[in-house]
Design a protein that fits this description.
This protein is α+β, with helices and mostly antiparallel strands. The chain is built from three helices and seven strands.
Length: 147
Amino acid sequence: PSELSFRVSCYGVVVQEGSILLSPQRDGYDFPGGGMDIDETLEECLVREVREETGMSVQSGKLIHVDHEFYFALPKQQAFNNTLLYFLCHHPEGELSTDGFDEHEKSYARLAEWVPLERIEEIKFHNPVDSVAVIRKAQRLLEDKEC
Protein backbone atom coordinates (compact mmCIF):
# COMPACT_ATOMS: atom_id res chain seq x y z
CA PRO A 1 0.00 0.00 0.00
CA SER A 2 1.19 3.51 -0.76
CA GLU A 3 -0.23 5.01 2.44
CA LEU A 4 1.21 3.57 5.64
CA SER A 5 0.21 5.01 9.01
CA PHE A 6 2.23 4.63 12.19
CA ARG A 7 0.23 3.40 15.17
CA VAL A 8 1.04 2.71 18.81
CA SER A 9 -1.32 0.40 20.73
CA CYS A 10 -1.48 -0.22 24.47
CA TYR A 11 -2.93 -3.40 25.98
CA GLY A 12 -3.75 -4.29 29.57
CA VAL A 13 -2.76 -7.57 31.17
CA VAL A 14 -5.10 -7.71 34.17
CA VAL A 15 -4.67 -10.76 36.41
CA GLN A 16 -6.72 -11.14 39.57
CA GLU A 17 -7.65 -14.09 41.78
CA GLY A 18 -6.61 -16.77 39.30
CA SER A 19 -8.26 -15.17 36.26
CA ILE A 20 -7.33 -12.79 33.46
CA LEU A 21 -9.54 -10.06 32.03
CA LEU A 22 -9.98 -10.66 28.30
CA SER A 23 -12.07 -9.15 25.55
CA PRO A 24 -14.08 -11.75 23.57
CA GLN A 25 -13.73 -10.91 19.89
CA ARG A 26 -15.18 -12.86 17.00
CA ASP A 27 -14.42 -16.53 17.76
CA GLY A 28 -11.63 -15.87 20.27
CA TYR A 29 -10.13 -13.40 22.72
CA ASP A 30 -7.72 -10.50 22.94
CA PHE A 31 -6.28 -8.34 25.68
CA PRO A 32 -8.28 -5.16 26.24
CA GLY A 33 -6.58 -2.24 24.55
CA GLY A 34 -6.10 -0.37 21.34
CA GLY A 35 -4.68 2.61 19.52
CA MET A 36 -3.18 5.65 21.16
CA ASP A 37 -4.62 9.07 20.37
CA ILE A 38 -2.10 11.72 19.29
CA ASP A 39 -2.70 13.80 22.44
CA GLU A 40 -2.40 10.93 24.97
CA THR A 41 0.36 9.50 27.08
CA LEU A 42 0.90 5.74 27.08
CA GLU A 43 -0.73 5.46 30.51
CA GLU A 44 -3.74 7.54 29.46
CA CYS A 45 -4.21 5.35 26.38
CA LEU A 46 -3.96 2.14 28.39
CA VAL A 47 -6.43 3.24 31.08
CA ARG A 48 -8.90 4.62 28.49
CA GLU A 49 -8.79 1.57 26.24
CA VAL A 50 -9.22 -0.91 29.09
CA ARG A 51 -12.18 1.12 30.41
CA GLU A 52 -13.78 1.38 26.94
CA GLU A 53 -13.44 -2.33 26.19
CA THR A 54 -14.25 -3.74 29.63
CA GLY A 55 -15.93 -1.09 31.78
CA MET A 56 -13.16 -1.56 34.37
CA SER A 57 -10.86 1.13 35.75
CA VAL A 58 -7.24 0.02 36.20
CA GLN A 59 -3.91 1.43 37.26
CA SER A 60 -1.01 1.08 34.85
CA GLY A 61 1.96 -1.00 35.91
CA LYS A 62 5.15 -2.34 34.41
CA LEU A 63 5.65 -2.65 30.64
CA ILE A 64 6.02 -6.41 30.17
CA HIS A 65 6.08 -6.99 26.42
CA VAL A 66 6.71 -5.06 23.20
CA ASP A 67 5.92 -6.34 19.73
CA HIS A 68 5.35 -5.09 16.20
CA GLU A 69 3.12 -5.85 13.22
CA PHE A 70 2.19 -4.55 9.81
CA TYR A 71 -1.51 -4.96 9.05
CA PHE A 72 -4.27 -3.78 6.78
CA ALA A 73 -7.55 -2.65 8.37
CA LEU A 74 -10.45 -3.41 6.06
CA PRO A 75 -13.03 -1.06 7.57
CA LYS A 76 -10.73 1.93 7.05
CA GLN A 77 -8.91 0.56 3.99
CA GLN A 78 -5.74 1.62 5.80
CA ALA A 79 -2.30 0.01 6.17
CA PHE A 80 -0.57 0.30 9.54
CA ASN A 81 2.91 -0.06 10.98
CA ASN A 82 1.89 -0.92 14.55
CA THR A 83 3.90 -1.06 17.78
CA LEU A 84 2.12 -3.07 20.48
CA LEU A 85 2.83 -2.41 24.16
CA TYR A 86 1.56 -4.76 26.89
CA PHE A 87 1.35 -3.45 30.45
CA LEU A 88 0.63 -5.25 33.69
CA CYS A 89 -2.38 -3.53 35.26
CA HIS A 90 -3.41 -3.31 38.90
CA HIS A 91 -6.48 -2.63 41.04
CA PRO A 92 -9.30 -3.35 38.56
CA GLU A 93 -12.49 -1.72 39.78
CA GLY A 94 -16.00 -1.39 38.40
CA GLU A 95 -18.51 -3.51 36.56
CA LEU A 96 -18.00 -5.25 33.24
CA SER A 97 -19.73 -3.25 30.52
CA THR A 98 -19.92 -2.69 26.77
CA ASP A 99 -20.94 0.96 27.18
CA GLY A 100 -17.56 2.17 25.85
CA PHE A 101 -17.73 0.25 22.56
CA ASP A 102 -17.67 2.30 19.38
CA GLU A 103 -19.84 1.26 16.41
CA HIS A 104 -17.09 -0.89 14.88
CA GLU A 105 -16.38 -2.70 18.17
CA LYS A 106 -20.07 -3.49 18.55
CA SER A 107 -19.86 -5.56 15.35
CA TYR A 108 -17.21 -8.03 16.61
CA ALA A 109 -16.64 -7.67 20.38
CA ARG A 110 -18.68 -8.87 23.34
CA LEU A 111 -18.76 -8.23 27.08
CA ALA A 112 -15.32 -8.75 28.66
CA GLU A 113 -14.78 -11.91 30.70
CA TRP A 114 -12.65 -13.01 33.63
CA VAL A 115 -11.13 -16.16 32.13
CA PRO A 116 -9.59 -18.73 34.53
CA LEU A 117 -5.82 -18.91 34.02
CA GLU A 118 -5.98 -22.68 33.63
CA ARG A 119 -7.94 -22.15 30.36
CA ILE A 120 -5.45 -19.85 28.58
CA GLU A 121 -3.68 -22.61 26.68
CA GLU A 122 -6.93 -23.90 25.18
CA ILE A 123 -8.50 -20.66 23.95
CA LYS A 124 -7.95 -18.88 20.65
CA PHE A 125 -6.33 -15.44 20.74
CA HIS A 126 -6.71 -12.78 18.04
CA ASN A 127 -3.41 -10.90 18.15
CA PRO A 128 0.11 -11.27 16.76
CA VAL A 129 1.84 -12.12 20.07
CA ASP A 130 2.37 -15.28 22.08
CA SER A 131 -0.48 -14.44 24.45
CA VAL A 132 0.14 -17.39 26.76
CA ALA A 133 3.79 -16.32 27.21
CA VAL A 134 2.71 -12.74 27.98
CA ILE A 135 0.23 -14.00 30.60
CA ARG A 136 2.81 -16.36 32.14
CA LYS A 137 5.29 -13.47 32.38
CA ALA A 138 2.66 -11.37 34.15
CA GLN A 139 2.01 -14.23 36.58
CA ARG A 140 5.73 -14.57 37.36
CA LEU A 141 6.08 -10.84 37.98
CA LEU A 142 3.08 -10.87 40.30
CA GLU A 143 4.38 -13.92 42.17
CA ASP A 144 7.85 -12.36 42.53
CA LYS A 145 6.28 -8.99 43.42
CA GLU A 146 8.36 -7.30 40.69
CA CYS A 147 5.58 -5.10 39.42
